[in-house]
Specification:
The structure holds two protein chains of two kinds. Chain A is of the alpha/beta class. Chain A has 17 helices and seven strands. Chain A folds into three domains: 5-95, no CATH class; 109-243, Rossmann fold (3-Layer(aba) Sandwich), CATH 3.40.50; 251-375, AF0625-like (Rossmann fold, 3-Layer(aba) Sandwich). A four-stranded parallel sheet of chain A has the order 5-4-6-7, with helices on both faces. Chain A has a three-stranded parallel sheet with strand order 1-2-3. Chain A is globular, with a radius of gyration of 20 Å. Chain B has one domain (2-203): Rossmann fold (3-Layer(aba) Sandwich), CATH 3.40.50. The chains are: A alpha/beta, B alpha/beta. Bound molecules: iron/sulfur cluster (2 copies). The site of one iron/sulfur cluster (SF4) has 15 residues of chain A, from helix 5 and helix 6.
């Protein structure tokens, strides 16, 4: 939705705000930046601050975790308002330079890192994966940008391929034809580019006769499930697929994990899409996996700060990163592994486990990796 | 103040795998993405900034086939007022590009011409300088700062070894623009779609009164990869292993 100066107070339901402050109270970056959602809602309601908003770095501090919107007792569309402000800024070209590069890269190469499109499926070369165009399938394994290019997350994509093959799932990937889903693009304010990606991807999926989509990332899952207007295909996050494979006896565990694991709910999987049980069910079925629950879990999970374009933003926040706070939480709980189910969470935790010097006390893993290790 | 900016559409090669065509005369381009030459982007932005200060018109100009229109559209989205494309395959010879551009430029009044320092693809760095010579006006190359005052431009040029040269130059003039002279704005897709409605004039060589093949264009005999340097060491292994090896090397070098 666009900012229309005449109607935006109604469009984003700003007039319903009772200034209770719940939004700011739950905001994961409130201690790390001047971002104050309660104030922002009030200011945009009373004045026309758009020209001055471009000067405020904190607009880019929001991770779009959606805690504010989900908890708002009045149903104010806080995150949509924030994304619309970013859209207003993007259309004027006033975005931070690293965000600018991510957006331009996505238009050119189909991924925010600007990596070469032809190399998108290099990670899968030795895995014997079917690629649409050369082969066909009803099920698309939509890999995603980070799992395609980032060496750490490529290990997750590889683990998933092995699990699917192991369980006899028929699927194919798009290879070079895969483009960014646009979830973060929309959140960085580039609504027009998001629309283009959604349209192009939808046309491609339909043309290839795809009947069902599995995603690595909760972010892609969210885009396909909630934000592609004409897709109308069943979409599953991989954790949902794995639970089904385990419950129907297609996936057998052959090894014991032999360690303790706690689980971090990714915002886009947990609080935003209510997939809470599946990851826990998977962990519960892994032999010798001692599951420990952190105090802040499920809806209350602490955002890792990897969403909303923060992967490409620089600065705008200060002090200890949430990912580091989260690692310390997991360590003090006594867990030897911090598991998650999202490429961005995985990367922010991997960074923080190193910068905090706790790499010898806790390992950061994706649930897919834990399943792959124990089902070989 | 009327400013003409000469731009070029180039293939992006930094992240790409490069292969050479069978006839050894060019690199394979069908898997590459094309974009506005980086230097030219800074030149267009600089022109738009000058226009904001002094008013006037920014015209972007290119020599190139139909596909080149997309970079003109981008320039229009960046704030240029109108665009002209000379319908012709991009010559290899910088001098020939300059001659072609000059034919169009000579037909109207202008105060300033900006080009990028060089093109990302062939890197000749000739067009701006040759253009000034043909038009008989002064020029400054590798410009990192422009200050306009009373029919003159005070410009800073980048020299080797971190030195800078400060020049005063009479307008009209040609300045070749170095990257980093300004902070490029983001060009949104919405702005690009809107810019498609702005005026782009297309002209043939005939229409500009330029007889083709005179002077002869340079031809490329052969392209090849540079030989691998003897002292280059490519580290092999997983990212973790490579980082380990690299750290060792840096430690060793630091000690020596
Ligand atoms: S939670 Fe909702 S009602 Fe409360 S201050 Fe925030 S926007 Fe207003
Ligand atoms: S979406 Fe999350 S980070 Fe952004 S303002 Fe709301 S609570 Fe804060």
């Amino acid at each position: 939705m666009k900012i229309d100066p005449k109607t935006f107070t109604k469009d984003y339901l700003l007039h319903l705000c009772i200034q209770c402050g719940t939004c700011t109270g739950g905001c994961p970056v409130k201690y790390r930046s001047p971002l104050n959602m309660r104030r922002l809602v009030r200011e945009t309601y009373f004045t026309d601050p758009f020209p001055s908003l471009s000067k405020r770095a904190e607009i880019w501090a929001c991770t779009t975790c959606s805690t504010c919107s989900l908890r708002c007792p009045s149903g104010v569309k806080n995150v949509e308002l924030l994304m619309a402000i970013r859209n207003y800024l993007a259309n004027k070209g006033e975005v931070p330079s690293t965000i600018r590069d991510a957006l331009e890269n996505t238009l050119m190469q189909g991924n925010p890192w600007g990596r070469f499109r032809d190399r998108r499926a290099d990670w899968a070369k030795a895995l014997g994966v079917k690629i649409f165009g050369e082969a066909t399938s009803e099920t698309l394994f939509y890999v995603g940008c980070a799992p395609s290019y980032d060496p750490r997350v490529q290990r997750v994509a590889t683990a998933l391929v092995k699990i699917f093959q192991n369980a006899g799932v028929d699927f194919a990937i798009l290879g070079k034809k895969e483009s960014c889903c646009g979830n973060e693009i929309r959140r960085m304010g580039e609504q027009a580019l998001f629309k283009k990606l959604a349209k192009d991807n939808t046309i491609l999926f339909k043309k290839l006769g795809i009947k069902k989509i599995i995603t690595t990332s909760p972010h892609c899952y969210n885009a396909f499930q909630n934000e592609y207007p004409d897709l109308n295909l069943p979409v599953q996050h991989y954790t949902q697929v794995l639970v089904h494979l385990i419950e129907t006896g297609h996936l057998h565990f052959s090894k014991e994990l032999g360690t303790s694991v706690t689980y971090h709910d990714p915002c886009f999987l947990g609080k935003q899409n209510k997939v809470f049980e599946e990851p826990r069910k998977i962990l519960a079925s892994i032999p010798q996996c001692e599951f420990m629950e952190m105090e802040r879990s499920r809806e209350r999970s602490l955002c890792c700060e990897g969403g909303g374009g923060r992967m490409w933003a620089e600065g705008g926040t200060e002090g200890k990163r949430n990912a580091e706070i989260r690692i310390r939480e997991a360590v003090s709980l006594g867990a030897k592994t911090l598991a998650t189910a999202c490429p961005f969470c995985l990367l922010t935790f991997e960074d923080s486990v190193k910068t905090s010097g706790l790499a010898d006390q806790i390992a950061v893993k994706d649930i897919a990796e834990l399943v792959d290790e124990t089902t070989k | 103040m009327n400013i003409i900016v000469c731009v070029k559409r180039i293939p992006k090669t930094a992240e790409a795998d490069i292969f050479i065509e069978k006839d050894n005369k060019d690199i394979k381009k069908d898997n590459l993405v094309f974009a506005l030459n980086d230097w030219d982007g800074y030149a267009v932005r600089e022109a738009v900034l000058l226009k904001e200060k002094f008013e006037g018109e920014v015209i972007v100009l290119t020599v190139g086939p139909d596909e080149s229109k997309e970079v003109l559209t981008r320039c229009l989205a960046m704030g240029a007022d109108r665009a002209i494309r000379i319908e012709e395959p991009i010559p290899n010879d910088g001098r020939l590009i300059a001659e072609t551009l000059a034919k169009v430029i000579q037909t109207g009044p202008f105060d300033l011409i900006l080009t990028g320092v060089q093109a990302e693809d062939d890197g000749w760095g000739q067009v701006g300088v040759a253009l000034a010579q043909i038009l008989g006006i002064p020029h400054a190359s590798i410009v990192t700062h422009i200050h306009i005052e009373g029919g003159k431009a005070k410009v800073r040029r980048e020299l080797e070894g971190g030195l800078e040269e400060l020049l005063e130059i009479k307008l009209p003039a040609v300045l070749t623009i170095q990257t980093g002279i300004n902070e490029p704005k983001y060009v949104s897709l919405a702005a690009i779609l809107e810019a498609e409605d702005k005026e782009t004039k297309e002209m043939t060589l005939e229409e500009i009164g330029f007889s083709p093949r005179e002077p002869l264009d340079a031809t490329i005999d052969q392209v090849s990869f540079p030989p691998t340097g003897k002292r280059a060491e490519i580290l092999k292994g997983t990212p973790d292993e490579v980082v380990g090896q690299l750290t060792e090397i840096i430690k060793r070098k630091k000690g020596s």
